């Protein structure tokens, strides 16, 4: 990989610049949580339109990540970042002043496409700027923390902006960030591009035909259960995925180099990220519902309660690379995931009046997320040759997006099944009210004064029982991930150990593609 040089002040300032769009991407995932009521009053969307307003952004990000990651490798990572920043800023203005629900859905979808250019660009530029393995791991930890902090700050920022301005102000936050990136990127960030040829358009089509139905199937299953549309979408996506893999194996310059998966550390780290993010995604989905529907907190107060877990994530993401200087990253990840099991244990024991215990438990979950997001992502990106780091970054982020979506679908559906099996519909309700009560805690809470206090307490207890069981299942999966870390990754040497380390994986095409780095300025 060539000589590793320690980064100077310019690279660290460049990291601070990259942190801004990274945090913005996380904020846009959750900022609409508190904005929907105000938005609905102005645009009057149907229930289906509301769902697409919420989901279109993450849906398109997941679908385009692999394509955009490879595109950045081909045309230049800084160039793609600047194109994406300009598109994100312009589309955010369109979203802020959307005159109709359909307009906003289209704008959110375009924001997802633009976001898919920013995510792999920022991460692959980090790997380009920080070639010293110790500094790279710390920088990736900061990068991962910024995205998670953006997600944590989203509901609070959304609530504050709606209270003082209007719902469109949530989108306008992106404009000054985009302008700053466009002005400062040419000065602070290096350019890097490979000498590979143009993208294979058929591969791009197959990747979209695989990812979009799979993501839709997972999100649909989370909202409506596993039904015919979910199964059909999964089958279509699975068939396209098989065709995509077969084509990549035949191409000399594939969209996604399947040879990356031959590395044991690369594949193991991806698996751990998938499982860890599934546990985190499901836990976050259920904990936020617990705080609002069981503990009775306002959305803004619930968002503030998420501050301590976010701080735990910060400690894990920044502290893990420092510990991994002396201890194998695989051992650090394994030990921290084992420690995070105490968080799942606290969630499995929570009652309807256990808010502090739930927050403490989720803090341990968040701690584990911070460590695997920093070190796991570093292992994935570091295992790929420099000219493939954009593809590796995109693959890492795709796995994490799928993990979160799968966690929400699986643990959310399990909690719903348990709720419906335990709750007993009280007498005196109309058929529609009885259906709402028996469907979910959200439905029961919507009945307001029509529901007696004991009936509402029963619904809360049933939901909490589902949360307990979901936490046990997630804990078992995370325990397995901890074991995978120990068995498959403990051979990795501490960061910066000159005696060895993770070697770049050869291309499946059997050739090394040289890259070109250009300093900014």
From TrEMBL:
Please name the InterPro entries in this protein's record: MFS, MFS_dom, MFS_trans_sf, Tet-R_TetA/multi-R_MdtG-like
Q: Which residues cross the membrane?
A: 12-36, 56-73, 80-99, 105-126, 138-160, 166-189, 201-222, 228-245, 265-286, 306-324, 331-352, 358-381, 470-489
User: What positions does the domain Major facilitator superfamily (MFS) profile occupy?
Assistant: 14-493
Keywords (alphabetical) are:
Cell membrane, Membrane, Transmembrane, Transmembrane helix, Transport
| Localization per record | Cell membrane
Positions of region (Disordered)? 497-521
| Chief location bin | membrane
One of the Pfam families matching this protein, by short name: MFS_1
Bilayer topology reads: Multi-pass membrane protein
For this protein, the record's SUPFAM superfamilies field holds: MFS general substrate transporter
Q: Which domain of life is it from?
A: Bacteria
Q: Which PANTHER family match?
A: MAJOR FACILITATOR SUPERFAMILY MULTIDRUG TRANSPORTER MFSC, METHYL VIOLOGEN RESISTANCE PROTEIN SMVA
**Protein name, per record:** MFS transporter
Species this protein is from: Nocardiopsis tropica
